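Pilot study result, target chain (199 residues):
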Amino acid sequence: MFAIFFQTYLKLFFILTPFFAISAFLSLTQEMSPSERRTTAVKVTLSVIVSSLVLYLYGRYIFELFGITLDAFRIGAGSVLFLSALNMVGGGTKMYETGGDQNDIAVVPLAIPIICGPGTIGALLVLGSSVEGFAHQALACAALVSAVVTVGILLFISSSLKRLLGRRGLNIMSRLTGLFVASIAAQIFFTGVRNFMMG
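Predicted structure:
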């Protein structure tokens, strides 16, 4: 049971693109004081927990509502997630404009769409729809919350990480994360194609 939890945790952790999130977080909060940055990290973590749990638990009902098959969504989500991964591997640094007060950036754009972007949302919908049974669902939710909290802790200590790793170190970690996410995206995509062809 612990092995399943840990495997799910790792997969979800990398899907949340933690090192890209840290780079974006540092860029968007550079005018904030350390205490404001920590408060923002907590708000981002709570926002991502709520949004990702809703997507993870109720994704199957979204499929039913729009008449989308799980395998069709696997193909679409895998493609979008792979494009996100390519952006990270290529060192993409496009940041989102805050469009207003710095205090408003916790939910948009940091939680959505930087951490929970289209690729992440698609992957959460697919993974959540694949889980059957209350025990496995509870285990998956615990793994998801643990992954989000880990990302939140990294955001909380992002100033220390920046001093420790430097901007170049964060870029390297973001690119490595991109490679892992690309592998997860390929697995989701090819599972969808295989099931579609067999069906």
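One observation from the pilot: Helices lie at 2-15, 18-28, 34-66, 70-89, 106-115, 118-130, 134-156, 158-198. A full batch analysis is planned for the follow-on phase.
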